[in-house]
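Lab notebook, bench 4. Still working through the backlog of constructs that have no structural model yet. Next entry is a single chain of 502 residues. Request: give me the structure tokens for it.
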Amino acid sequence: MASVGNGTEESGSGGGGEEENFEDAYENIPVASKMDLKCALEECSMALNLFLNNKFSEALELLRPWSKDSMYHALGYSTILVMQAAMTFEQQDIQMGISTMKDALQTCQRFRKRNTVVESLSNLVSKQTVDQLTEEEMHAEICYAECLLQKAALTFVQDENMINFIKGGLKIRTSYQIYKECHQVLQTTQGNKSKSETYYQFEGGVKLGIGAFNLMLSLLPGRILRLLEFIGFSGNRELGLCQLREGASGSSLRAILCTFTLLVYHTYVSLILGTGEANLQEADSLLEPYLLKFPNGSIILFYAARIDILKGNFEKAQLRFQDCIAAQQEWKQIHHLCYWELMWCYTFQQDWLQAYRYADLLSKESRWSKAIYVFQKAAILCMLPEDDLKKTGEDIVSLFRQVDGLKQRIAGKSIPTEKFAVRKARRYACPQPVKLILPALEMMYVWNGFAIVGKRADLTENLLVTIEKEETALQNETSFFMLLMLLEVCQCSVTGEAVKII
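Model written out:
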């Protein structure tokens, strides 16, 4: 099979020799007349390279011809469509993702081991051993587990129905049980000296599944985790991180997925949930080889810019986000991720007009959380001087009153940040609105933004000045004053300064 090189993509004119070679490599890939496991993995590796070089449609077209006859093509093809559905949040795309994932499950099922009635009864007493599974059947188990997990995730987004919620939960449990059994297979075969390339691909899939499950479950509250452990789940954070690190250091198809899972944990989860300091050194080392291989890949550039934000390099991050936006125009939703981060960059710098610009774009273009976007937009407008506010032509009261009607539910539950925004926005519902005090900074506190802006002494000092000015203006307003004191304490806690008691 032909192999695909780095395939870097220039965002402007003059693509260069490497880009032309990459295009030629794709155009010259023949449609295979047969597809064994080795060929399927090679072709899916090509599709992955295309995807990371922003060639999303080309990746789909490469995978489509064999998506009904090859488990890896089925998994890759449906995964891209599921990602697209998660990006757009359009009902049509969600339905397409679920339908394609259902087809992928059927394809994977054909390659799984078929048990007779006697074998099925025997497996109730003792699990099947590795000797009972062919290499192809081992891979089918992993692919099937991944498809089940993704289908369950889309089910939660698609419908608030409790029956679908239970069905989704059962799919997740089945997926986890398959990963556990595959992990046992892996441990049984660790001592084997002769390991093929396809074996290492299987190993990468197991490490991704076991690692992601353990890491994500470990983030749940202790009470819920103990209940889940009672029904067979495991939430060992150290095991999860270890498995993902091992998977990321390998050369399997799932290495990049292990890397992305670790990057999400270090750059978002650990900060938002307060599980500890983000490990930016590890995040940098994980991303570095992909930055060299895919310098214009929009997803790679996005994570690089996010790491710059967490380091306090807001100006550098802004340039990188602009490069990410310019790198591709096919998946506009990646632009929305950049808009969200740019909005916060400018909020940290108190450049309120620029922050408003990106909040406005989000409220008009993105479907992820209209309630949050409109609330954030109104909150930023509250920070503007009266003259600048008039130039925008926006009505703050009208914006706040829209928030309640924009809230949504996922898996039958309200989103916590939306509930917070709705509750705050209700102050503007009455005929005589009760003004919110520094709402943009309050949202910064909700998203743990003070921990980020605290990396910059100059910007931290500017925020303290803003808070103290508001304190002076509202000394007789006890309820508002307590909020301002909370914000000041948060700011001082990241700088080590003493809080001034008035």
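Notes after review: Residues 162-189 form the longest helix (28 residues). The longest strand covers residues 409-410. Flag for follow-up if needed.
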